[in-house]
Amino acid sequence: MNKLAYIFILLFAFLSCKNEPKVFSEDALNDTFLSLEGESVTFKSILDGHKGKSIVIDIWASWCADCIKGMPKVKALQAQFPEVSYVFLSLDRGEEAWKRGLEKYSVVGDHYYLPNAKDCKFADFVNISWIPRYMVINEAGEIVVFDVIEADDDKLIKAIKK
């Protein structure tokens, strides 16, 4: 009986493991965002601007109640890990709403707007089903946290500390 239980546990663990990507697809890297200055930039160029650093990516929107409720946790994370780069990708319904949200909530970091929101190659790659959505990219440019929804998630904190 113990052998059968052990096999069941291993099978369950294997089937329940998420197959999360470690690198971004070419389509996601080539997708374009808008900077605060209104310039079109690729996601690859955004990441290249932080090469060699850990990056926390926060996918959010100013209309999202959970995103706003999570901002104090993001600010606490920034205070605890000031050496990390923070990149905010907005799914707002317009550029003006995005910029008003940044000001209203005093969001500090690098900011980009997804003009096509969830209908783009980047969104397809990350499979955005909920926001806020946090990701961590390590110094080598690898995705080490693909999908957490709380800025104080243990998985996120451990990845930053490595």
Provide the fold topology.
Blueprint: H1 2-16, H2 26-30, E1 32-35, E2 40-42, H3 43-48, E3 55-60, H4 65-80, E4 85-90, H5 95-104, E5 110-113, H6 121-126, E6 133-137, E7 143-148, H7 154-161
Features:
162 residues, alpha/beta, Glutaredoxin, 41% helix, seven-stranded mixed beta sheet
Q: Count the domains.
A: 1
How far apart the termini lie comes to 40 Å
CATH architecture: 3-Layer(aba) Sandwich
SSE string: HHEEHEHEHEHEEH
Number of helices: 7
Q: Estimate the global geometry from the Cα principal axes.
A: globular
Counting DSSP E segments of at least 2 residues, the number of strands comes to: 7
Can you give the mean pLDDT? 89
The rounded Rg comes to: 17 Å
Strand order of the largest sheet: 2-1-5-4-3-6-7
Q: What is the CATH superfamily?
A: Glutaredoxin
Strand content: 15-25%
- The share of residues in helices is 40-55%
Tell me about the largest β-sheet. Answer: 7 strands, mixed
- What's the CATH class label? Alpha Beta
As for the CATH topology, it is: Glutaredoxin
Structural class: alpha/beta
Low-confidence residue ranges: 4-17
Describe the structure.
The chain is of the alpha/beta class and 162 residues long. It has a single domain, classed as Glutaredoxin. It is 41% helix and 21% strand. The chain contains 7 helices and 7 strands. It starts with a helix and ends with a helix.
